[in-house]
Amino acid sequence: MLDVRRMQMLAAVVSSGSVTAAAARLGYTPSAISQQVAALEKEAGTELLERVGRGVRPTAAGLLLTEYADAIGRQVAEAETALGDLLAGRTGRLSVRYFATAGAHLVAPAVARLRAEHPGVQIDLKLTGPDPLPDVREGRADLALVVGPADEDGVRLLHLLDDPYLAVLPAAHPLAARRSIHLTDLADEPWVGSEWPGPCLEAQLTACATAGFHPRFVVDSEDYATAQGFVAAGLGVTLIPRLGLGGRHPDVAVRRIRGPEPSRAIHAAVRQTALPQPALDAFVEALRDAAAS
Q1: CATH number, domain at 37?
Q2: N or C, which end of the chain is more exposed by having fewer CB within 10 Å?
Q3: What percent of the residues of the chain are helix, what percent strand, and what percent coil, each to the nearest 5?
């Protein structure tokens, strides 16, 4: 196998026209350069230099290896530049998983900011499945937005915000006349389910249990827009988080809840063993600023 470092020494000799000049340029002794070229000739199985007067010139084989050495040198320089860009966050790829209600309020402004600050970074966005944490833990995603707490080995959760639930009532409901209501005021009401089983539903049930009752679900929608439709039709009341009320039905009333106020905690999940990434750090910071706005 040909030694790349020796090929680069040969190229220096060829471009300088002499072993002595190449040695001065590279900071070696002439004998050291001659030894390395001789070793390269042994590896190549042919002579690479021939003497001409007081200087040297490459043989056909020497010229061939010199051209490859120059190409390798350019590739190494390009690799160093590309590596520097990657480590500085100027290039790279970021894979993000998110759930729908976090998309418009958190992910969209964070992505816009990252593209402005790190235009060379490619962002792979995907709506999350039921459990995105395995993707983060196993390296298929750099970050996932999740509702927690949902601590899991290999994953670190970074708190972004607490998203409070609001009461959604038929517009003509007697409680709609109030500016805010107690959670216990809904204890005897029929409820419209708005969540899939999981941490979001658990946040509602925990708050209701603290208030001393279990909601009586009469219909399940598992979708905020559909749940509002059922409420508008007078089938019951529901709770929807603030981030989930992007499109409000005209025939419902939305009121704050007191004593206790249900809330879901939204986190950014990253791999515990992930190495520092400027683009990832910038994206997390953008998410935090979006959550605070």
Answers
A1: 1.10.10.10
A2: N
A3: 45, 25, 30
